[in-house]
Write a structure and sequence with these properties.
Blueprint: H1 12-28, H2 36-58, H3 63-87, H4 95-107, H5 112-123, H6 157-164, H7 168-183, E1 185-186, E2 189-190, H8 197-221, H9 224-247, H10 270-277, E3 280-281, H11 286-291, H12 298-303, H13 312-325, E4 332-333, H14 336-352
Parallel strand pairs: 3-4
Antiparallel strand pairs: 1-2
Transmembrane segments: 38-59, 65-84, 96-115, 159-180, 201-221, 227-249
Organism: Thalassolituus hydrocarboniclasticus
InterPro entries: FA_desaturase_dom, Fatty_acid_desaturase
Amino acid sequence: MNQIHFSAGQRQLYQQLSAQVNQYFRQQDMTKTGDQRLYRKAILILLLFTASYAALLLLPAPWSLAAWFIHGIATALVGFNVMHDGAHESFSRSRRLNRLAALTFNLIGSNRFYWAQKHNRNHHSFTNVDEVDEDIDALGLFRMSPHQRRFWFHRYQHIYVWLLYPLTSLFWFFALDYKAYFRQKIANREFSHRLSAADHLEFWASKLLYLLIYIALPLSLSDSTTVIAGFLLMHAILGFLFAVVFQLAHIVEQAEFPQPASDGSMEDEWAAHQLRTTVDFATNSRVLTWVLGGLNFQVEHHLFPRVSHIHYPALHQLLQEACSHQGHPIRSYPSLGAALKGHYRHLRKLGRTD
C-alpha cells in the first residue's frame, strides 16, 4: 500500500480548477488563509471551551454534568474550526499560529502528528480507498466500503451504528492513537517519516497532560462518580459529532469507493478521484457552515485543503459550473437530513448485499 499512486502527469483537471481559484483570490485581493472573521470565531469558541471547562470544575452536580455536556460541544467546535484549519496550514499565513491551532488537537485528546499522517497524508490523498484511508476502517464493526468483507451482523449496522458513534473519540484517543504510534503506520501505510525525539516527547507529554486536565484535576475537586459520568458524557457528545460530520462527506450513497490496480495506480487523476469520493451537504445553511467550520463543503476542502474554510461558500459557487463543465459535477445533498438519510441507506445496503 506504500506504492499506491496517481499516474504522473495526470493533473489537467486540478490545474484548470486551481487556475480559476487563484484568479478569484487575485481579483478579490484576498489571502487564501483565514482573516478577521475566522479569528473572531476562534476567540469566541475558545472562550466557550475555557468557560465550560471552568464550570465543570467549579459547579456542583448536577450542574457540572451540564457543563461537561457543553464542553463536549465546545471541544468539537475547536476541532472543526481551529484545529482543522491549523493542521492544513490554512488558519493563518503565520506558520507559528498554524502550529498553535494544530496543537489544540493535543489539548483535546489526540496528537497533531498522528492527525497529519491519518488525515492530511492518507485520507486526503486516497479518499475512500480501502486499507489506506483509515476513516473507512472500523475494524470489521461496520462495513463502509463495498470492498470490505461482509459479516452477518452488518445486516443491522444501519441501526447499531448510532449507538457506537458516541464511543468514537474514546476509541480514537485511547486506542487508535497508540496503535498508530507503536506500529508507525496508519491502516496499512507506513508513516511518511520516523518520529523525532521531540515528536515522541510531545506524544507522551500530551497524553499525560490530557489525563491531568480531564481526570486528575476534576477528581481533586469533585467525587469520582460525577467526574467519570461527566467525562463519558463529554466524549459521547464529542464522538458522535466527530463521527457523523466526517461520515456524511464520504460514507453516503453518492460517494464512490475506487480501488487501485494491481500495480498500485489509481484510475483517475487526483482531483477527479476527490470529486468521485467526496460529497457536500447543506451548503445553503449559514448556521451549519459556521458551526462545522465549513466541513459541509467537503468537496471544496478536499480540492483546496490549504484554503481556509471561510472561503468555501464562495468557492462552491465558483467550482460548481467549472466541475460540471469538466464532466465531474460536485455531488451534494441539499440538507443535513438528506445527508443523514444518504448515510443510513448506504450502511443498510452494504449490510445486506455483497
